[in-house]
Every structure is written in structure tokens, then in C-alpha cells.
Design a protein that fits this description.
mainly alpha, 42% helix
């Protein structure tokens, strides 16, 4: 049974793919195999990647008839001769003559051409916020130290002024309270 809503859309049952039988001529092979569930029949002249590797999974079990296997050379050719049944078709050549990649990379010729490995790792400089870090701000703006000192002095002067004002008001209130008490 299929999971999900496909059951309601006339796709109730699903079946896994079984082996694939590839033939050249039909000598009754279709009638013999067509009723076996899961087995797919493919003609050699109509080969399809979607049937040979369903779902992109390479490695489906394929059963080849002898005549189909012989026809492969005529259909696709070899590396030495072109295909007979296809016009101007040659099998793609290998990109590498030697496929032992680890041996190639460790060979002396390749190692001579490569740069030496960088052993000392250079760390990137840590970005610091100049508004919070005075040293960095001094590097950007030398007047910043004087400006900050002036701002601190102005703030301190303002605070002392407000403190004096508050003290004066309290003294005036105390005097007026004492006078009221004395008057009663």
C-alpha cells in the first residue's frame, strides 16, 4: 500500500522494481515473462536510463540475452570503432589513463609542482567596536580622549551644581518648617 493521499487518487498499490530482462528479438520471451510481477522487459533498441537505474540508483539487476549483448557493439560501438546503428556516435574516451589517484597525487612530479603547505595559520584581526574601546577610538580620532575628558568634567560639574541646588532647597524648607513650628 502507498502511504499518503495517493491511495485516494487511484494510486493505491505500489510495487518495487525487480530484475530487468533485456532482449534483442522476441522469440516468445515477452509472453513468458510479462505476467511475473516486478520484472521489466526492455528491448535493446529502446534502452532507457530511467528503466536501467530507477530513482537514480545505479546497480539494478539486469539479465541480458546473448543476442542483446552481441548487439551492444553495433549499437554503441567500442573505443576503437564507431557505432554502426547510430550516426557519428563514438563512446566517450576516458579522461584519465591511470585512475589510481592517490598514487598520482603522491608522485614526485606532482609534489614538485605544488606549493609547500602553509604551516603557520594567520588569524584574522579581531574587529573591535571603537565606540566602546577607547584605544581603538584614539587610533581613529586622537581628539577623542580630550573630548571624553571634557564630557566627564562637564557631567561632574553639572552633578555638583544639582547637588548644591538640592541642598539649598532643603535648607530653605527646614528654615520655613522651623519658623512655622515656632509661630504655633
Amino acid at each position: 500500500m502507498r502511504t499518503g493521499k495517493g491511495k485516494m487518487r487511484n494510486r493505491r498499490r505500489i510495487q518495487r522494481r525487480g530484475p530487468c530482462v533485456i532482449y534483442n528479438e522476441d522469440i516468445g520471451i515477452i509472453k513468458v515473462i510479462r505476467n511475473i510481477p516486478g520484472i521489466t522487459l526492455l528491448s535493446i533498441s529502446k534502452l532507457n536510463v530511467l528503466w536501467l537505474a530507477p530513482g537514480g540508483h545505479v546497480g539494478r539487476f539486469c539479465i541480458w540475452t546473448e543476442s542483446a549483448f552481441r548487439k551492444l557493439d553495433d549499437l554503441y560501438g567500442t573505443w576503437r570503432k564507431a557505432a554502426v546503428l547510430k550516426a557519428d556516435y563514438n563512446l566517450p574516451m576516458h579522461k584519465m589513463t591511470n585512475t589510481d589517484l592517490s598514487r598520482i597525487l603522491t608522485s614526485q612530479d606532482i609534489q614538485k609542482a605544488l606549493h609547500a603547505p602553509i604551516k603557520k595559520v594567520k588569524r584574522s584581526e579581531l574587529k573591535k567596536n571603537q565606540l566602546k574601546n577607547l584605544k581603538i577610538m584614539m587610533r581613529l580620532n586622537p581628539y577623542a580622549k580630550t573630548a571624553k575628558r571634557n564630557a566627564i568634567l562637564r557631567q561632574a560639574a553639572k552633578e555638583t551644581k544639582t547637588v548644591k541646588k538640592v541642598v539649598r532647597k532643603r535648607q530653605i524648607k527646614k528654615k520655613s518648617v522651623k519658623e512655622e513650628v515656632a509661630a504655633k
